[in-house]
Automatic annotation (TrEMBL):
Topological category with respect to the lipid bilayer: Multi-pass membrane protein
Bilayer-crossing regions: 21-43, 63-83, 90-114
Cellular localization per UniProt: Membrane
Name of this protein: Tetraspanin
Superkingdom of the source species: Eukaryota
Keywords: Disulfide bond, Glycoprotein, Membrane, Transmembrane, Transmembrane helix
Primary location class: membrane
Paired cysteines (S-S): 155-176
Family that this chain belongs to: Belongs to the tetraspanin (TM4SF) family.
Length: 232
């Protein structure tokens, strides 16, 4: 009977080992995918999705490359640690996840504490960037605004009148139109999206960041169980 229980416990540990290895392997592969997309964007689109005129390097490509590299590194440590049952690697993996969780929490606290100041600065910087729309050497910013306004069905930072100052006329980019057509931005305001892009994208990010936070918390809890199992 004792031998049966021992074999059962061993089988459970082995199953847990490979289950966690598979989980961490998927985590690593996800990092590879994010990194690959970032490299592809950097190679084919340049500064694609660069909205900020003050921080031109803050592009979608660069953010994806940094995020993908970091996730790959964490996933690799987790994979090797789970496969080799190496307590040092598992502890490192857990500490890295804990640091990420603490970083996310700190950023969230600071964001909510200084929401008004952040909103004012971000909107001022984005409005400044609107003046670079369609100009030479700013293909990334132009593409970014076109895609955001089309996909999120919005126009301008605060509202569509932000573009009036850019063009010195009552007009908007064609990506602001309810029904896209050539030079439709010259038509009446009734044919343009009315939603402000800043608030629309901000709401979307808050919804998705909540999901990311929940995923990160679940991941950390899984690693706590794993570390406790192997260290027991």
């Amino acid at each position: 009977m004792g031998e049966f229980k021992e074999k059962k416990a061993t089988c459970g540990t082995v199953c847990l080992k490979y289950l966690l290895f598979t989980y961490n392997c998927c985590f690593w592969l996800g990092g590879c995918g994010v990194l690959g997309v970032g490299i592809w964007l950097a190679a084919t689109q340049g500064n694609f999705a660069t909205l900020s005129s003050s921080f031109p390097s803050l592009s979608a490509a660069n953010l994806l490359i940094i995020t993908g590299t970091f996730v790959m590194a964490i996933g690799f440590v987790g994979c090797v640690g789970a496969l080799k049952e190496n307590k040092c690697l598992l502890l490192t993996f857990f500490v890295l996840l804990l640091l990420v969780l603490l970083l996310e929490t700190t950023i969230a606290v600071l964001f909510f504490a200084y929401t008004d100041k952040i909103d004012r600065y971000a909107q001022q910087d984005l409005k400044k960037g609107l003046h670079l729309y369609g100009t030479q050497g700013n293909v990334g910013l132009t593409n970014a605004w076109s895609i955001i306004q089309t996909d999120f069905r919005c126009c301008g930072v605060s509202n569509y009148t932000d573009w009036f100052e850019v063009y010195n006329a009552t007009r908007v980019p064609d990506s602001c139109c309810l029904e896209f057509s050539d030079r439709c931005g010259l038509h009446a305001p009734g044919t343009w999206w009315k939603a402000p892009c800043y608030e629309t994208v901000k709401a979307w990010l808050q919804e998705n960041l909540l999901a990311v936070g929940v995923f990160g918390l679940c991941t950390a809890l899984v690693q706590v169980v794993k570390a406790d199992t192997y260290c027991a």
